[in-house]
Amino acid sequence: MGINSQKRMAAELLKCGVSRVRIVSQKEVDEALTRQDVRDLIKKRMIVKVQKKGTSRGSARKILSQKKRGRRQGKGSRKGTKKARSPVKRQWIANIRPMRRVLRDFRDSGRLSTRDYHGLYLEVKGGFFRNKKHLLVHIKEHDLLKEAKEAKA
């Protein structure tokens, strides 16, 4: 009886493929004839089952940490268009909210009249101002704040 039949029996008993069965001592395994003999050899660790090889996550973890640090975002890594990656609406929201907040604060503190507030609000909505700083410069140039008016008077 060749070693192959013992290997086959061991594979059935260990519930794995023949390629994963390793024989430590060939002499003792050669003498095993029955399934019980093979079972005993498995208990004695003369026949062992090799652990399956898994896929290493090391490189995946490295890539993930690089992405967290802001790497791997160059032109070659991008799939979507510029507008898909940061939608125009999100940009608009990020721009308009601070400007509206400034106007609201000025109006609520009484530094800006409701009439001026409304006019500026509509200009902001219409996209007249590039950003918050542009809005503040415009307010200053046109003396729309009450303190500025009082200082001049």
Structure description:
There is one protein chain. This protein has 153 residues and is mainly α. It folds into 2 domains: 47 residues, 50s Ribosomal Protein L19e, Chain O, domain 1; 68 residues, Non-ribosomal Peptide Synthetase Peptidyl Carrier Protein, Chain A. It has a two-stranded antiparallel sheet. The protein is rod-shaped, with a radius of gyration of 38 Å. The termini are far apart.
- For the terminal residues, how far apart are their CA atoms? 115 Å
Shape: rod-shaped
Strand residues, percent:
under 5%
Based on the coordinates given, report the CATH architecture of the largest domain.
Orthogonal Bundle
From the alpha-carbon coordinates, what is the Rg to the nearest angstrom?
38 Å
Domains (count): 2
Mean pLDDT: 94
> How many distinct beta strands?
2
CATH class of the largest domain: Mainly Alpha
Q: Biggest sheet, strands in spatial order?
A: 1-2
Largest sheet: 2 strands, antiparallel
Detail the poorly predicted runs. Answer: none
Defining traits:
2 strands; 153 residues; Non-ribosomal Peptide Synthetase Peptidyl Carrier Protein, Chain A; mainly alpha; two-stranded antiparallel ribbon; 4% strand; 2 domains; 50s Ribosomal Protein L19e, Chain O, domain 1; rod-shaped; 9 helices
